Structures are given as C-alpha cells and as structure tokens.
Amino acid sequence: MNNTDLVYEQSRCVAHEIRNHLSICEIYTQIIKRNLEQEGVENQSIDNALNCISKSLKIMCNSLIDLKSLNNIEQKECDIKAILEEGIKLSSVYIHDKEIKITADIKTNAKVFIDENKFLACIVNIIKNAIEAIDKKGEINVSLEIRSNNVHIKISNNGEPISALKQEEIFKEGYTTKPTGSGLGLHICSDNLKAQDAILRLNKSNAEITEFEIIVPVYKN
C-alpha cells in the first residue's frame, strides 16, 4: 500500500468514527425533542435550536462522506427558496455578540437540481465568512433572482473588504485571509458547486460592499 492509499484508508476510518459520534448527538437530539413533547413543554427557541443542530449534524455527516468516497454528489430536485431560508437560519448562530442584521430579498422561487446538503453547506460557509468579515456591527443581504433560466444568488456584506491581490487567490486550496483559517472553505465550496453545474464567483469587494454570487440553472424536468 503506497502513501496515498494509506492516507485514504486512514481518512475513511477517521470519518467512520466521527460519524458514529455525530449519530449519538443526533439520537440525543431526538430524545430531547420526544421528552419535551411528552412533558408538554413548548419553547420555540429550544425547537429552533434542536432543528438547527439536527441540520448541522446532517451536513457534517454528509461532508465526512467525502473522506470515504471520491464521487458522492447526490443531486435531486430542490426548492431554492427553502434552501436559502434554511441557510440563513443555520448561519445566524455565528453572529454571537455582534450587531449584525441579515436581510433576505427572496421574492421569487425556482426548482434546482442540486445536492441539498452540499449546496446548503456552501450557503452557510459564505454567510459565516460574511459574519466574520464584520467587526462588530453591520449588514448582510441574501438575494435571489431568476434570469435567463438561471438562479442568481447574491450574498453581500459591508464588512472588511478583500484586497485586490487576495481577490485573485481566495478560491485556491490552502489560501486564507484569517489567522486561524484552513484555506479550504471557499475552495471546497467552489469545487462542490462546480460538481453541481453551479458557479461561485466574487463579484466585487470594496469599502462599501463585498458580494459573492452563485449561479445555478433552473431545473426543468
């Protein structure tokens, strides 16, 4: 077994073990939900938190499959409006103590043929980056538009701009603008979206606005 095969086999084993523990978290999430229902406890905040945890666990489990399979894109017909709304909800947890307002300009809808969890993970990653770009107070906008049989998703923020030099490098593997970043987030997003016939690009980044755009074809069955 050469080094590449060894690393691949080790990654498969690690992914398997991590998924086992994530499954335990999911089981206890369901137990908590069931106990709350049995006790007649109604708390919208707890329900939202548990739903977000369940969705995040599902995204993580699907991401770990990447370590076990070289081809694991599972596309299906999805409602893009629902995906974006879910992405905004999941991303909001990263705001913490910042004063950030996330607005959604989603007045239209369409069906797209995507891997739901991988696409959602990309939305969450881009909004998370936008949150991290804002020091204390700012705004993030997520918009949806249909043009020429394509869905155009724009995610913008008014945080720290990306320098012109860095704009040319941000989608490269290992490149990061963060002191503790891995340089994998946008690279993985770009690759995963490309595998779903979608495009991720940076439209602009200046003192007023940084705007990323995802373009994906409208699904016509």
Which structural class do you get from the secondary structure elements? alpha+beta
How many individual β-strands? Answer: 7
| Tally of helical runs | 6
**Multimeric organization:** single chain
Shape by Cα distribution: globular
Gyration radius over CA: 19 Å
User: Which runs of at least 5 residues are low in confidence (pLDDT < 50)?
Assistant: 179-183
CATH topology of the largest domain: Heat Shock Protein 90
Give the CATH H-level superfamily of the largest domain: Histidine kinase-like ATPase, C-terminal domain
β-strand amount: 15-25%
Mean pLDDT: 83
Query: Major sheet: order of its strands?
Result: 2-4-5-7-6
Architecture (CATH level 2) name of the largest domain: 2-Layer Sandwich
Total domain count: 2
Query: Share of helix among residues?
Result: 40-55%
Distance between the termini: 45 Å
* SSE pattern: HHEHEEHEEHHEE
Structural overview:
This protein is 46% helix and 22% strand. About 2% of the residues have low confidence. It folds into two domains: 65 residues; 142 residues, Histidine kinase-like ATPase, C-terminal domain (Heat Shock Protein 90). The protein is α+β, with helices and mostly antiparallel strands. Strand 4 and strand 5 form a beta hairpin. Helix 2 packs across helix 4 and helix 4 runs antiparallel to helix 6. It is built from six helices and seven strands; from the N terminus they run ααβαββαββααββ. It starts with a helix and ends with a strand. The strands form two sheets. It has a five-stranded mixed β-sheet. Strands 1-3 form a two-stranded antiparallel ribbon.
